[in-house]
Automatic annotation (TrEMBL):
Entry-linked SUPFAM superfamilies: 4Fe-4S ferredoxins
Transmembrane domains' residue ranges: 31-54, 74-101, 159-177, 197-214, 341-360
Pfam hit, one: Fer4_5
Entry protein name: Cytochrome c oxidase accessory protein FixG
The organism's taxonomic lineage, starting at the top: Bacteria, Pseudomonadati, Pseudomonadota, Betaproteobacteria, Nitrosomonadales
Database matches in Gene3D superfamilies: Immunoglobulins
Organism whose genome encodes this protein: Sulfurisoma sediminicola
Length: 473
């Protein structure tokens, strides 16, 4: 009796033993070639040449793109952005967001599949892995093999190559915040500052971990875009689609066999579409949030269809409506222009136009007038009333400028002392200004005055700034 009770209790405990997390299975991605693979590698080359090369490009005696946090100035070719220009950063983020909405509504996860840094660096790390360890089958055999000197050497070479790429990526990233030539000199003497060392190692470690080990887990579990993409799709959004009506029922067969009489569809159930998928999904099960839209399965399936002498396009870019109603590309293209796409486009064009207009009309001179709070007003020689101001003159242009200063607004008002100031390119200078008026020039209390600062070589570069002048009671 006791034995039966114990057995029943054990069975109950086993039945309640439920796994809360999916066991991670390593994905060994099969190499694939084709038009979409070519496009993906073209984007890899473009983005990485831009990232690794742009920081070395000189411009007017300085780095062309430099985000100088210490000086609180961003240099982007001929443009200099100050903290006051944060509106341009906000505008750029809004443009990026609406671009993402528009491209996703039209073509699905184009960003994820072709230009996302996670996709780009995973492609690079996979290429290194394939060159060192071999193709998919060779890598799987190496995984299953016991540790040996050969396996240790191969794996060590792969990890060393990954670390080199990751550290160079971290070094380049920091080179956009610390001048890359300065950083290079510090590299030669290993004299990095503490923050530079931290960020090189931090960014390098994340590149190594995300592209080398986490890979599809970043897309499936960490990236929020995969989760909310569903609300950005509609039945007319182009996505990677398996033509179930044409492909099912799937099954193996010999080339040239009359599979139609056997009741089979075009899918030969080779599984290559799954083997080339970087997230390890089976696109034949329908659209899934794990799909990053890389189109590797399209290239793979087209190659199989070509070998079997079947029409290509069993897996293709299509829409839900197109599959259901058997539309061709002409009909699909006709449904791309729809209300949400028009709205996204109009808003994006308007914001982009406003952003470029603001950029084109960005002032090259800024002046801040700050009253000296220690001495609001005082009487000086000849009974004149004097107020002190600190003028913060910012030269946003790429050349040194000399500015003349004057003040208006009250009869007899004038500046005491220097009336000109020279400011180097992309710099600011602070100057203490003494303003004097006869006591009868204005009313007791606060009076409105104006400071005029203009370039001595170009009258169009000028600022008219309002201030207040205090006359004691």
């Amino acid at each position: 009796m006791t034995t039966e009770t114990s057995s029943s209790s054990a069975t109950t405990e086993q039945a309640q033993d439920v796994a809360l997390f999916e066991v991670h299975k390593k994905i060994q991605v099969r190499a694939v070639s084709g038009i979409f693979a070519t496009w993906r590698w073209a984007l890899v080359w473009f983005t990485q040449l831009l990232f690794y090369g742009l920081c070395w490009l000189p411009w007017n005696g300085r780095q062309a793109v430099l985000l100088d946090l210490v000086e609180r100035k961003f240099y982007i070719f001929g443009l200099v952005f100050w903290p006051q220009d944060v509106i341009f950063l906000a505008g750029l983020l809004i443009i990026s967001a609406y671009s993402l909405f528009l491209f996703t509504a039209v073509g699905g996860r184009l960003w994820c599949g072709y230009a996302c840094p996670q996709t780009v660096y995973t492609e690079i790390f996979l290429w290194i892995e394939q060159k060192i360890e071999g193709d998919r089958n060779a890598r799987m055999k190496l995984d299953a093999a016991p540790m040996s000197a050969r396996k240790f050497m191969i794996r060590g070479s792969r990890y060393a190559a990954w670390v080199a790429v990751a550290l160079w990526t971290g070094f380049t990233f920091v080179g956009y915040f610390t001048p890359i030539k300065t950083l290079s000199s510090e590299l030669m003497t290993l004299s990095f500052g503490p923050w530079e060392t931290f960020w090189i190692l931090f960014y390098g470690a994340f590149t190594y971990a995300f592209a080398g080990h986490l890979r599809e887990q970043v897309c499936k579990y960490m990236c929020p875009y995969a989760r909310f993409q569903g609300v950005m799709f509609d039945p007319d959004t182009l996505t990677i689609t398996y033509d179930e009506e044409r492909g099912e029922p799937r099954g193996t067969r010999k080339k040239g066999a009359d599979y139609k009489t056997q009741g089979k569809g075009d899918c030969v159930d080779c599984g290559i579409c799954v083997q080339v998928c970087p997230t390890g999904i089976d696109i034949r099960q329908g659209l899934q949030y794990e799909c990053i839209g890389c189109a590797a399965c399209i290239d793979a399936c087209d190659q199989v269809m070509e070998k079997m002498a079947y029409p290509k396009g069993l897996i293709r870019y299509s829409t839900e409506h197109a599959i259901a109603q058997h539309w061709g590309w002409k009909d699909i293209a006709g449904h791309i222009v729809r209300p949400r796409v028009v709205i996204y486009t109009v808003i994006l064009v308007a914001i982009t136009a406003a952003w470029f207009w603001g950029l084109a009309n960005k002032p090259v001179l800024r002046v801040d007038v700050i009253r000296d709070r220690a001495t609001l007003a005082r009487e000086v020689e000849n009974g004149l009333i004097e107020n002190l101001y600190r003028l913060q003159v910012m030269n946003v242009s790429e050349s040194a400028e000399r500015y003349s200063m004057s003040v208006t607004g009250l009869p007899g008002i004038r500046l005491a002392g220097e009336t000109e100031i020279e400011v180097p390119a992309a710099s600011n200078k602070s100057i203490l200004v003494q303003v004097r008026v006869p006591p009868e020039s204005g009313k007791q209390g606060s009076n409105v005055v104006f400071f005029d600062v203009k370039s001595t070589r170009n009258d169009k570069i000028a600022v008219h700034e309002k201030a207040t002048f205090l006359i004691p009671r």
